[in-house]
Amino acid sequence: MNVWTCPPARLRQASGIVTFAHQRVRQASPPLGKSLHSHGIELVYLSQGMQFRAHSGSNYPMYAGQVLVIPPGAPHSSGVMPLLPGTTYRLHIRDSGPLLCLPERDAHILRAGLLQRAGAPYALAASCRTAWEQALSAATDKTALAGTVLRHALLSVLLEANSPSSTASTDGEWMRAARHLIAADPQLAGQPHSLAHHLGLSYPGLRKRVKASTGQSLGDWLMRLRIHHAIEILSAQPERSITDLALSLGFSSSQYFATCFRRHTAMSASRFRSELNTPTGRRRLNKLRE
Q1: What is the CATH topology of the domain spanning 173-288?
Q2: I need a surface site. Which of 8, 20, 94, 154 has the fewest CB within 10 A?
């Protein structure tokens, strides 16, 4: 896991910004511990992958292109869920005072708009990803205008998060159809050309849609679906051997299945199965089914 945090000098130039951070998780890790910001609003933006975030008593699945607004004083973590592979940006702003050189009234309106969106994750326009990337680039830049570029990019991020056109995202029909096809025939998850044909798409077309909708490669997305299907089978048939399960899902060996399962859940398949009847295991299973 790689984490980069904006240098303090750049934060001072971007008035009102407490933290701007970028995190890339390459394989599932233990759950995130609890954090709490008493006097700040935090935005968590997922540009790639799928993760979970819990705050204010609720645990939400997050998908690529979504942002989560966490209000001041709300403890937040990944709940009982592991930290899954993905690329995340975090922006923590003060809940009062100057903000990005805006007039006081405008800063107040912007913050109030964000707090109205606090709760479940919602989708931002695809172009918003560029603003987060520009902010990351400017934060590490040492040229004279880097501070101005950073302020402009972060302001774009905050304005987009306030946009009334930003709404809770839903899967397209093609994505739901893909899940049903793979549930009926798990081997299709390892045969992307055949899956595309069943969906009435070309292989490049399917690959492009997956990238645009999830931020993931087609291979990574299909692997996640295979692991989720494995989880359903484990919960329905706890007596089934891990080796038999792996081979039925098209994995070349139980060892490869074990590696992929751990990468996506941060635990072994046998441990996941053994904990299914515990309160934590049941909560974990319910979240993975969302």
Answers
A1: Arc Repressor Mutant, subunit A (1.10.10)
A2: 8
